[in-house]
Amino acid sequence: MNATIRPKPAESRWTDEQWKAIAAGGRDILVAAAAGSGKTAVLVERIIQKVTAEEGAVDIDRLLVVTFTNAAAAEMKARIGEALERELAKRPHSLHLRRQLSLLNRASISTLHSFCLDVIRKYYYLLDLDPSFRIADETEIELLKEDVLEELLEEEYGKADNERFFAVVDAYTSDRSDAELQEMILALYEFSRSHPAPNEWLANLVSMYDVDEQTPIENLPPARYIAQHAAMELAAAKRLIGLALKLAEQESGPKPYKKRLDEDMNLIADLEKRLAGPWDELHQALQSLSFGRLPACRGDGYEAQLIDEAKSLRDQAKKKIEALRDNVFSLRPSTWLRHMREMKPVVETIVALVYRFSAMFEAAKREKGVVDFSDLEHYCLRVLRQRDLETGEWRPSSAALEYQAQFDEVLVDEYQDTNLVQETILQLVKKGSEQTGNLFMVGDVKQSIYRFRLAEPMLFLDKYKRFTVDGEAGGMKIDLASNFRSRAEVLDGTNFLFAQIMGEAVGEMAYDEAAQLKYGADYPDGTDAVPEVMIIDRQCTVEEDEEAEAAELEAAELEARLMAEKIKEIVSRPFYVYDRSSGQPRRAMYRDIVVLVRSMTNAPQLIEQLQAHGIPASADLSSGYFQATEISVMLSLLKAIDNPYQDIPLAAVLRSPLFRFNENELAMIRLSEPKGAFFEALQAFCQKQAETDEEENAKKKAMAFLARLEEWRTMARRRSLADLIWQLYRDTQFYDFAGALPGGKQRQANLRALYDRARQYESTSFRGLFRFLRFIERLQERGDDLGAARPLGEQEDVVRVMTIHSSKGLEFPIVFLAGLARPFYTRDLHSPYLLDKELGFAARFVHPRLRISYPTLPLLAIQVKKRLELLAEEMRILYVALTRAKEKLYLLASVKDAKKEIEKWKSIAAASEWLLPDDVRASARSYLDWIGRALIRHRDGRVFIEADASAPSEIASHPSVWRLGIVPAAKLRGGERSADQEDGGTLAALEQGRSVPIGGEWEEEARRRLLWRYRYERETAVRAKQSVSELKEQRALFGEQADEWLPRKGTAPLFTRPRFMQKKTLTPAERGTALHVVMRHLDLRAPMDESSIRSQIIRLVEKELLSAEQAEAVDAAAIVAFFATDIGRRLCAAGEVYREVPFSLGLPAEELYGSEEMEGRRLLVQGVVDCVFADEHGYVVIDYKTDEVTDRFAGQKEAAARFLLGRYGAQMRLYRRAIEQIWRVSVAECYLYSFDGEYFLAVE
Questions:
Q1: Which residues are CB-contacts of 104 (< 8 A; sequence separation ≥ 6)?
Q2: Helix, strand or coil, per DSSP, at residue 587
């Protein structure tokens, strides 16, 4: 059947491509519609043309139209209704058109969830579902999941011989709770629901770990992604060596390097060849890899800069190959396979838990007569398909065949955001194959930004690659590239960037001619629409580098100040925007401006800065609700009503503006009953006789509060939660009080939202104040937030701050895109477990005995795959952000050192291809990494670099125009001072260290505040729990011998150090740790000679208790010398030997710190005694010391002994005391043994 396209009417306003999308039929059609190309208008027009055609018209209820949101469905219905009214005015006697208007309200124009709901309501009897079911809200579902999960785990803990389950709990949870396992089960359950057959997908997870020793690792599914990653890294290394070779061949280049670089190139080529073969060979080649040293360049004929550049390029190439060696190919293929085999029972156990959870959760929902949104899709699938009994394949059910007969066409908007389940449903209700089908799909894969909601952009891409322009071989694809939203300058700029950064390997699709945005609007000339890139140079020092969070906050504030300057300029200059409704330019207003950010983390500070500069700004904040003071106070009051025996909420309520108790009054209450709950103290205080007027006043307030609290507690038992909250607002007048505070409208909106949330909660099957508070606590624990309630209207003249995701589908005359240098959020890539539709479930392998975790091959593969998917998603998010602008685009970034950033970009400036190399794009950590490297190749990028480093002319002379600039942060910081000019120069004098006049009305208050000292300052340095080592170091720092001992740097010794650090020599602390490990595990019955001790050390390395480097550092001769002593021989012969004995001992604080202020306080002291043994002389305590004393004290044993006893004597006395007190035995002897000096010191 050929594709049929009606001829376009002569007076039509549609472009040829748009008309083709409106009129084509006879097969499945995919419309790839670029941003601003009018895709929704085309979709609506296609429906209208079908319904209003004079010949062959269809009824509106014979079309299934699927939209992404309910709002889009309502808008589409409204537009179709208006079009029908207009057509009816032309043809007033048409019964068909009148019929369409009456059918419009029951037409299938809705979200896919709404369609699924209709299917389920119609065929509920096939699902054994109660016909009166309702859709549960998110609150109810979350609470239900919690209950089911707790019940499931409770059952598992109670089962006998459930070793596999306990092994999983042991491996993947902390010692405090099993929250991590709960999250893992829920994540796996939710993820499986995005697959059309969740149970089949879960079953396949286990089969991936079903490997044997003979399986070639390179044939496993994860290996393909690791091989792709390795190929990209090797290609990158080859490119870098190639660039270094070009430098070596230059006139004044480092020619002696050429031979070595040629060898490197051959080495990389060999690795690339091995990558296609068995991995055993590749692993051996990488592990035996050795790069030769570069020869020296002597003489004057070599340019130092070229030498440094060539060295740097070679170092980068080496790092890439060494990273492959040390990460992906660090273990033998046989080890990877062994880990996968050992992971199989773990995965089986986790999958079994998910199966059980799924069944129990569905049963719980059926019992309550509720379904969630995920159920809608899966129940709909159950209705629409059935298994073929002969082949076992899925095929459409009779219900699906009914829908196929009912719908003449299935139209899908925003097709790029569908998932596999939704695609399966669409395939079941459409007719025919791709070549004869009736599925019409509209979308733009470059705007697919909902992968985190498990959308699957590859569905769109696969069809786009498979379908053809003429539709002869299968489906038809139509490209709508004309953009009717933006000015040419915005489109040219977007095209210039994306032609360089979006490709198939990194980006999932090529930004080719068909994908380029074409100018289709009709803006008048005269407006300065050149996109502007503003880079704020913070010029950070090394000290500032350490505070990442503070630096990010400062960056956001600096960007906000720069934006404030520009916005003031736009509004006052003025900047003119084109008003389509009037066809005339008009002055830009605040509401024409939007600030787009990747996330709202720093939005409150951004808004604060804009408002401080007199610019009205608003944001729909997704956080900050629970932190709002008024909500915090009300939640504390609700907690006190639920259970007044909670001290902190009760104290918070009493101290709040509701009851206004001051700190003295609270202290009086506590003193009336020093022990027990604060509520008991409050009751006791009310019974007590008041001794002063102040006490009498406090007692009246306390009695009034208790009377009120009792009333509210009675009400909480008898009335609804929402009624209780509103009654609290009335009784306390807190709602009116909050309205009178600064930001009162917002505060009242927040309080109303709490009331609404309570009503919504009680509309579920859950009831009661306790459950509501528990739900709120869980929300806070998970980091979720209800978002500050929004008191502003949409049409208010304010600058809007929103996320890029929120801006999808919207357009604004002027767009500021801020925070371009903020790093991408990659924390999810480093999760202990990862999920993927193709590669399934992967987690770290935890050694059951050693408690060490290793990455597994599937985990590495999913990390590699997910990183590329994340980068592709970030590219699409950037595309969405840039295409929101109609007339003017500002890009802002704040960097630590602009000069260094530009140096990084310059390295790629001369690349000959349009598309930047895959590895360069894949290594990006922020949007600026892409944008900077692209712009440096543009002719306008020469403001950053010299003309001789320019890119190929085709790229440099692209028609796009850019205005680039670097803004010193000092210039923006200077703006802070301008607001303080009226202080008469006092602030400036203080900053410059000059004297200022004192006195005035605030002198006394200033002195009180600045000279205030905390009464118990000494106690702030005291911990409730301290280790013996910490106490020893405190005494060493502040005791008598402080001048003899140099304190360590503030880095804790690491037992297992990162591989790159192990190449260096071990620190003294690490050598000491290694020696302690040996002394702990030595077999005391074995001969104590060097060869025996050395063989025991080798066994410790084999057991992975020591690394090879640590074993090297252990001095076997020193250990022999220890056992040659009288006490060493006694230790070997002893009947009782205890090594590494941990203890916890409670001691009076004044004894440890020598302060009377601490009288009555006790501290918990913890430590580990190296060795305790008992023989005929009694118990003996030994502590080993590896401090270097021989060289330090020039062999003077008395000085060394005094130092060691001074430093460790108190520690040893604590050890003696701990053993005697806890074991209830007498310690006869107590010794320090110095391995460096080879002598014992008795400690009295």
A1: 60, 77, 80, 81, 84
A2: strand
Judge contact between 1078 and 1116, C-beta under 8 A.
Answer: no
Distance (Å, whole) CA 106 – CA 143? 35
Cβ burial 72-91 (10 Å sphere, 16+ → b, else e): bbeebbebbeebbeebbeee
Q: What is the mean pLDDT of each run of 10 residues along the chain (1244 residues)?
A: 68 88 91 90 91 87 91 89 90 89 90 93 90 83 88 92 89 81 92 92 89 85 91 92 89 86 90 88 87 84 86 91 87 88 91 95 91 91 90 90 94 92 94 91 91 86 91 88 92 95 91 90 86 89 55 86 93 88 88 91 83 85 70 90 90 89 88 87 87 87 90 89 89 88 79 84 74 76 56 72 89 94 89 89 84 86 93 95 94 91 85 89 94 91 65 84 91 60 60 70 79 78 75 55 41 48 70 91 89 91 88 90 92 92 86 67 88 93 89 82 88 91 92 90 88
DSSP assignment of 1098-1135 equals HHHHHTTSS-HHHHHH--HHHHHHHHHSHHHHHHHH-S
CA 934/CA 915 separation, integer angstroms: 9
Q: Are 323 and 230 in contact (CB under 8 A)?
A: no
Exposure letters 535-551 (e unless 16+ CB within 10 A, then b): bbbbebeeeeeeeeeeb
- Which strand (E) or helix (H) includes residue 1169? strand 1162-1175
Q: Which residue in 1223, 1213, 1204 sits closest to 1152, CA to CA?
A: 1213
Helices and strands counted in the chain (H then E): 50, 31
Q: Give the side-chain half-sphere CA count within 13 A for 893.
A: 24
Could you give the C-alpha distances from 577 to 491, 525, 582, in angstroms and in order? 17, 11, 12
Say how many C-beta atoms besides its own lie within 10 A of residue 1229's C-beta. 16
Place of tokens 């491509």: 17
**How far is Cα 316 from Cα 296, in angstroms, rounded to an integer?**
19
**700 CB-near residues (< 8 Å, 6+ apart):** none
Separation CA 396–CA 384 (nearest Å) = 6
Closest among 467, 442, 481 to 43, alpha carbons compared: 442
SS3 content of the chain, % helix, strand, coil (to 5): 55, 15, 35
Beta strands at 1162-1175 and 1178-1185: parallel, antiparallel or unpaired: antiparallel
Rg of the Cα trace of the chain? 37
Residue type at 1050 in one-letter notation:
G
Spatial CB neighbours of 353, under 8 Å, sequence gap ≥ 6: 152, 156, 165, 185
Kind and range of the H or E run holding 895: strand 885-895
d(CA 267, CA 272): 9
Nearest-10 Cα torsion for 786, 791, 796, 798? -60
Count the residues in the chain.
Answer: 1244
How does DSSP classify residue 1048?
A: P
Do residues 883 and 517 lie in contact, with contact meaning Cβ atoms separated by under 8 Å? yes
Please state, in angstroms and rounded to a whole number, the distance separating the CA atoms of residues 279 and 275: 7
Hey, what are 578's tokens?
Answer: 């084109």
Q: Coil, strand or helix: which one is 109?
A: strand
Q: C-alpha distances in angstroms, 709 versus 668, 695, 724, 919, 1150?
A: 20, 21, 12, 65, 43
Assign 193 to helix, strand or coil.
Answer: coil
Host H or E run for residue 1208:
helix 1197-1223
CB atoms within 10 A of CB 580: 11
Query: Which pTM does this prediction carry?
Result: 0.74
Non-local (6+) Cβ contacts of 82 within 8 A are none
* Contact present, 906 and 507 (Cβ < 8 Å): no
Question: At 899, which helix (H) or strand (E)?
Answer: helix 898-906
Phi, psi of 490 (to 5 degrees): -65, -45
Q: β-strand 1162-1175 against 1136-1148: which pairing, if any?
A: antiparallel
